[in-house]
Amino acid sequence: TPGSHRPPPETSEITLRLAPEDSLTLQQIRDALVPVETRQVSWWRRALSASRPWTTFIGLGLAVVPVPWTGYSAATTWASCVYYARETGGGAIGYGLAIGALAFSSILIARARTYPQILISRCALGCAVVGVWQVVHPWDFIQALTGVTL
């Protein structure tokens, strides 16, 4: 008779009562029916979410603070190495080292998870930026466009 059946629930939830030994089977059924999609977050979004301003400033500060026994910072030491490579080996070697360090520091930033890793990656970024600043000469752009050497 029509009045003897309960009306179906209005929600899409199903309630099942199973014995404890059937819970694994229920999980397998759920995983088969409802595939779980994990969305991969891009590396730059992870890097921005991990960039706490104070850790970024401390990491960049570590790059430019002089090391006590040398009197030079890590950034100026890297900048002098890149400049020396440019002067002795040519512009391509200097640019290659500077851009390579910048790429390496961006990889470090993307993979940094803990605070020490974040500090080290920001310090590497500061050193790489100072190195790129040291290797770039304003005349390079004119030479690239016109071919006229300095």
Write the layout of secondary structure elements.
Elements: H1 23-33, H2 43-50, H3 53-64, H4 74-89, H5 91-111, H6 115-135, H7 138-146
Give the number of helices: 7
Strand fraction:
under 5%
- Choose one word for the global shape: elongated
Biggest beta sheet attributes: none
Structural class: mainly alpha
Q: What's the end-to-end separation, in Å? A: 99 Å
Radius of gyration: 29 Å
Task: Estimate the mean pLDDT confidence.
Answer: 83
DSSP summary, beta strand count: 0
- Give the topology string: H per helix, E per strand: HHHHHHH
User: Which range best describes the helical content: under 10%, 10-25%, 25-40%, 40-55%, 55-70% or over 70%?
Assistant: 55-70%
How would you sum up this structure, described in words?
The protein is 65% helix and 0% strand. The chain is mainly alpha-helical and 150 residues long. It is elongated. The mean pLDDT is 83.
